Amino acid sequence: MRAVTAVAVALAACVLLPATCLAEASVPVRVDGGIHFSYNAPEASSVHLAGEFNGWDPTGIAMSDEDGDGVWEVVHVLQAGRTYEYKYVIDGGVQWREDPLNPNTVDDNHGGVNTVLSIDENGEVVLGYMGGAPGGKVYEPVVDEMDLLGTKLYVAIVWHQHQPNYLSDLETGEYAEPWVRMHCIKDYYDMVSILAEYPELKFTVNLTPVLLTQIENVIAGYDGGTGTDEYLRMTLQDAATLSLDDKVYLLTHFFNAHWDNMIGVWPRYQALKDMKGGDTRPELEAAATNFTEQDWRDLQMWFNLAWFDPDFQEGDVALPDGNTVTVKHLIEKGEGFTEQEKAEVVETQIAIMRNVVAVHREARDRGQLEVITTPFYHPILPLIYDTDLARVAMPSTPLPEHRFSYPSDAEAQVEMAADYYRELFGDSPRGLWPAEGAVAQEIVGTVARGGFSWMASDDQVLQKSLGAPYLSTRQKYQMYWAEDEATGSRVAMIFRDHRLSDDIGFNFGKMDGVDAANSMMRSLYSIHKQLADDETAYVVPIILDGENAWEWFRHDGKEFFHSWYDQLSRAEFLETTTVEGFLAEHPPTETLPNLWAGSWISENFATWIGEDEENRAWDYLSRVRSHLLPGADLEAAGAESSERQEAFDRAYQQVLAAEGSDWFWWYGADQSSSLEGTFDEIFRGMLSNVYTVMGEEAPAFLSEPVLLTDTGSAGGGAMARAESVADAELLNGPVFTPDGVLFSHSRPGASTVHLAGEFNGWDPGALLMSDDDADGVWTVVVELEPGRYEYKFVIDGGASWEPDAGNPERVDDNHGGENTVVVVE
């Protein structure tokens, strides 16, 4: 790009005059007070300026159109001698637009471009890069440019680690899925071991009981020679003895990894994938004939090797128990693996699993880590307390025929989690992440009685709790008391920064790691600048899934983590903290008038209740729960003997497990997965087990799937559900039109729907869909070059990502769900 002086002759007279002398939109120009930015958007209700200078905050720099001529303006101070990327944010983020008057752009890592300008040493604007565009952009840490301006800002990072309670064989205990084991070797260990490299850093990790119990069970199954998981058994199956069904199984399941970041980076693994071909049974059987015995053995190895964290792939790792492990030598070998090496790689995985709790305990004992928990089986706690609480946020939503209200179950889920934590870590947990950040005023007493001093939710819940049209910076970054008036007990509340948390989970994987870290640091510095003159201690909570995002980052996010953690450790303007550590020094000074009944997803419980399938599942649960203990607590059940009491105990555990949120997550059209039929079987199986352990026959209704067909009867799935909604003629997958590919999606309750996929770098905000007639069917037309593309629909800015219910062409998305596939000829 050619550097162009921004001050054109036509604007010369305005350079040192107020911004209002500029009658129409222009390129950025120096004026009194800073740099004048302007953008022509006559139909917009708001326009903001966002860029590297404010951490890409979409609401930090508001532009104004005081004379109503459609030209939005702002003057902002920029540091001399720097280059900046920027964009204009329309209507609160509905659109992000580059500057059409500045031709100097750079890829934004989201399928679009950012505009580039520089400020020279004299403070003048240069469009593009000073001295011309660089041959390749080099990112340098920005922390050294960020001085302490006043009161330090605190940052509380909380990583949430969870896996659903996977289906296990009743006789052997073998799990159907390997993801507990795989995330142990890729995420659960190294996400905490990295703290040893940054002794100034502190954060919090949530370990859910359903995850920890499965880790224990896999280790016990391996040691006892019983069941681990089906993938592990198929890994150890001698390649010389594989049946055709075994080979189809390996071709179907052993490429379940991110294709670019976990398969394509290993030549041998990619070559095996290239041999696979299609996904139908005939195609897989045909492909199997091309694989040699050695090919099968290498495939068994590479699925396992690819899931190891780079720390294990690239060097020796000393574990807390004194053992040292690595798979570097196997990675370097690359192919020609032996049966003995297969056994070695599994032994290495189990060795790491044995140390997951230990590495957390070590970091906690050093004072760098707080470990917290979740109600035992990961339920939506307010809905277990009372399903009618869904009406707080959704007053008109249809609810189950049978109201489910068991406060004693909510109490049991909380108490069991605290007891299990004490068993593993030797003291009582202080913090609670309610599953999905789901809270309500009614559960405050339950959490307080469990001994917890704090719990967390989302800033959208905070806004609703305060009844505020928007949150000020000071409201957003403080803790509050939630008080149970009946008992006078209270629990401190912290509310996650929705935007910053989702930036890591959904956006940063598309960026250079250092650039992503810089973006986060700029955002934090922008918050610091707003609060530095206040002596109050404020804390920025960044809370998100700590396991599933990293496959979408190159090199498992190592560059991002090391750059971000290093900058956090060196930053003078902030201090990282555990939540309990911040609470101990800075207790809340305000009490919420009422804790809103909602979750981190759209401030409500719509993902788990309200749709026909979801309500049907709640009715199944309610019928079984009322049969088990009609109108009585477990202790008052009148057990006739210790054996009878034991049966009640075991049955009750099955009910509590069926209360987990994971089953309700997959019911309904709002979430969909190729595994939803399996999850339905798990859910109904647990309910059937209630009767089995009580020596009774399960009722017939439990043999009927919760999933609905196109006629409204049981047994269907997402495709069938889509056919019954409005505008059904649109909802049969992508439609090819003269103007491009027409995508449509039914989501009546959504405030926004975007289309994201491989064609736009999975940008969740780039392709806005429209629902002009307000019938709940959202559409957009996109011009696509010939090729194969995976895609999803993004609901309410990332609250949920959904496949196309009308398109049966699906592939695993490596996150327990599916991407939809469209092929453009």
Report on this structure.
With 825 residues, the chain is α+β, with helices and mostly antiparallel strands. The protein folds into six domains: 4-138, Immunoglobulins (Immunoglobulin-like); 163-365, no CATH class; 369-495, no CATH class; 499-585, no CATH class; 612-718, no CATH class; 725-824, Sandwich (Immunoglobulin-like). Helix content is 33%, strand content 18%. The chain is built from 27 helices and 31 strands. The strands form seven sheets. Strands 1, 4, 5, 7, 8, 9, 10 and 11 form an eight-stranded antiparallel beta sheet that branches. Strands 25, 26, 28, 29, 30 and 31 form a six-stranded antiparallel beta sheet that branches. Strands 12, 13, 16, 21 and 22 form a five-stranded parallel beta sheet that branches. It is globular, with a radius of gyration of 28 Å.
Describe the SSE topology.
Blueprint: E1 4-5, E2 29-31, E3 34-40, E4 47-51, E5 61-62, E6 71-76, E7 82-90, E8 95-97, E9 105-107, E10 113-119, E11 125-127, E12 153-161, H1 179-188, H2 190-193, E13 203-207, H3 209-224, H4 230-236, H5 244-253, H6 259-263, H7 267-276, H8 281-288, H9 293-306, H10 310-314, E14 317-318, E15 324-325, H11 328-333, H12 339-354, H13 356-365, E16 369-372, H14 381-385, H15 407-425, E17 431-432, H16 444-449, E18 454-458, H17 459-466, H18 473-476, E19 480-483, E20 490-496, H19 498-507, H20 513-531, E21 539-545, H21 558-570, E22 574-576, H22 579-585, H23 612-628, H24 642-658, H25 661-666, H26 676-693, H27 718-722, E23 735-737, E24 740-746, E25 753-757, E26 767-768, E27 777-782, E28 787-795, E29 800-802, E30 810-812, E31 818-824
Parallel strand pairs: 12-13, 12-21, 12-22, 13-16, 17-18, 18-20
Antiparallel strand pairs: 1-11, 2-3, 3-6, 4-5, 4-7, 7-8, 7-10, 9-10, 10-11, 14-15, 19-20, 23-24, 24-27, 25-26, 25-28, 28-29, 28-31, 30-31
